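Practice problem 4.
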């Protein structure tokens, strides 16, 4: 069952998404070598509670954090903890915030200090692929058009697409129908209709696409332990151009020229 949002619900989705984005902007201020991932988690939790929201991941099927923490080879669903960020790491912070009964969901992968050029390129490619997925999210097209846009952009540049984890519908529940895979064929899957809210979240690996789940039952990492990147936006299908409800603007204001830039086609052969 795919729920189309009413105008009233759309307004609530905008507010939840904005709080999600602003929270990641607060997290951005703390990204530097020497900071623990549990500190990032505490910053996010306090900011959400101060602003009347609820950290939706905390306690979800027993998940122990506000943020999912994704350091280097961690793909998704890592726990916040005592790990101290080091120069050269990348760290994804994936966040769902519930506000007034509706959910916003966004993820940004931060460089910690100076990072390897090849890892930087992985981040730029993954961010750009999110943009291409958004461009494909047009009323009257199908989920497969989004999936294919993400997949082809990344695979053509030599990266691999995680298969087991997908984007998703969102609304009253953090995960609603439809599933939004990051791989697939054009023209297949559910029809995109005005009023649908979906999350697009490419999870892109530098090495092979294979993943393993750690013994904690949650932490998902690459099998080859090469890095993985993850960016996510919540959006509303609306004619030829979706309304992107979350934004990285707050993060970019903090990071300035350290923000990840989406790879442009012209740079592909750099
Ligand atoms: N933000 C994740 C997603 O994009 C969901 C987090 S799963 C949780 O789907 F269990 F940690 F909540
Ligand atoms: Co999501």
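Answer key:
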């Amino acid at each position: 069952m795919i729920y189309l949002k009413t105008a009233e619900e759309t307004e609530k989705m905008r507010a939840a998404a904005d709080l999600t984005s602003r929270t990641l902007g607060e997290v951005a201020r703390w990204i530097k070598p020497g900071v623990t991932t549990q500190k990032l988690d505490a910053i996010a939790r306090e900011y959400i509670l101060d602003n009347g929201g609820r950290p939706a991941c905390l306690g979800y099927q027993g998940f122990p954090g506000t943020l999912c923490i994704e350091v280097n080879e961690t793909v998704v669903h890592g726990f916040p903890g005592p790990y101290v960020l080091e120069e050269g790491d990348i760290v994804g912070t994936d966040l769902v915030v519930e506000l007034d009964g509706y959910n916003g969901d966004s993820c940004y992968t931060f460089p910690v200090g100076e990072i390897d050029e090849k890892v930087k390129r992985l981040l730029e490619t993954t961010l750009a692929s999110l943009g291409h997925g958004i461009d494909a999210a047009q009323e009257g097209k199908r989920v497969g058009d989004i999936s294919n846009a993400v997949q082809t952009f990344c695979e053509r540049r030599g990266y691999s697409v995680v298969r087991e984890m997908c984007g998703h519908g969102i609304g009253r529940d953090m995960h609603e129908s439809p599933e939004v895979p990051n791989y697939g064929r054009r023209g297949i899957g559910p029809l995109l209709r005005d009023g649908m809210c979906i999350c697009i979240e490419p999870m892109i690996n530098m090495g092979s696409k294979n993943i393993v789940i750690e013994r904690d039952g949650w932490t998902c990492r690459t099998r080859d332990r090469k890095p993985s990147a993850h960016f996510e936006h919540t959006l509303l299908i609306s004619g030829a151009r979706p309304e992107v409800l979350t934004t990285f603007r707050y993060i970019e204001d903090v990071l300035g020229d350290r923000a990840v830039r989406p790879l442009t086609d012209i740079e592909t052969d750099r």
